[in-house]
Amino acid sequence: MNEFDDHTSPQPSFILRKERDFGEIIGDSFKFFTKYFKSTISIFLKFLGPLLLLSVLANVIFQYKIGTIFTDIASINNTFDAQNFITIMSSLLLYFLVELFLVPFTFFYFTLCIIKCFLQSESITTSIIFSFLKESFLKYLLFAIMTFFAVLVTAFFSTFLLGLIFGILSIGSPIFGVIVIIPLTLATFIPITFVFIYFTLGIAVSIFEDLSIGDALSKSGKLLKNNWWKTLAIYVVFFLIIFILSYIFQLPSTVYTMVKSFVFIESATDYESVDGLAALYQDWVSLLLTAVGIIGQNLLSIFKYIMIALVYFSLSEKLDFKGTYDRIDNIGN
């Protein structure tokens, strides 16, 4: 049976197309997930189970290779090992590819597909998800790549501009340069955040309205017009909430690592300390706690993508009143 339905009898459905205030968007993001928890998790595990496993492996391998670096430092014969260097760089590349691109954008896509599935049929089925994959995956993949590089390029030029301004100010007055470094650093996040919001909202427009990439970005700009600061506040606050909650999943691993590191360093020589740190990063308990934390963090990230969808529906309703018109049409039915 291909259907995972959380409701078996007619009841008031979760209203997606409506204008929401700041608190409603945050609250309804959690409400939607909890209301349709079973079907959402079922779809994610069925389609993205291998990707979730890949994310765990990428993080575990990366942590293990950090231990290898400490082993090289502790080695008496501290010579350059080209093969080990290539292995470490490969694991680092795998880590960034998986954690910065594959996992977030794939989870984002499937979250939008689940919400679109519910929007069309008020149930979440694998057959409809498959149809969405056939219709929009290639377009979404191109959109995701564009978004990734747009944010990356913006971050690069913002950082470069920050360094240039800081260097010019430091020449005239080093003290003044130090004073303005914090506001300048914060200022560099403004263009990065704008590009991120503009493109992720555009992706939501593309999925829910079946628009081309160009039309979706144009619609995204219209939605953000006169709503930029409110949208920015929602993104910042919600992402901060998820960041704090995500850290809870990593807390056991962090505490375990800190306690064992402190105990070992207190009782060891300098050489033994470095060698012990290597063993700690490769400790199976530490690796297991890291794996559990990564699974929790990835599943928790679904809330962020639900929030982006609800921001789209709220701004779209404010602009087009589609949900209002639909409810008026259904009054007589």
Task: Describe, in plain words, how this protein is organized in 3D.
The protein has helices spanning 22-35, 37-74, 82-121, 126-172, 174-209, 213-224, 228-266, 270-281, 284-300, 302-320, 322-329, and strands at residues 3-4, 124-125. The chain is an all-alpha fold. A two-stranded antiparallel sheet has the order 1-2. Helix 7 (228-266) crosses helix 8 (270-281) and helix 7 packs antiparallel against helix 9 (284-300). It is globular and about 70 Å long.
A few lines on this structure:
With 333 residues, this protein is mainly α. The chain is 85% helix and 1% strand.
Number of helices, counting only DSSP H or I runs of 4 residues or more: 11
Structural class: mainly alpha
Given as residue ranges, the uncertain stretches (5+ residues, pLDDT < 50) are 1-12
Q: How far is the first residue's CA from the last residue's CA?
A: 31 Å
Mean pLDDT: 81
Query: What is the molecular shape?
Result: globular
The H/E string reads EHHHEHHHHHHHH
Total beta strand runs: 2
Main beta sheet: 2 strands, antiparallel
Q: Numbering strands along the chain, what is their spatial order in the largest sheet?
A: 1-2
Bin the strand percentage.
under 5%
Radius of gyration from the alpha-carbon trace, in angstroms: 24 Å
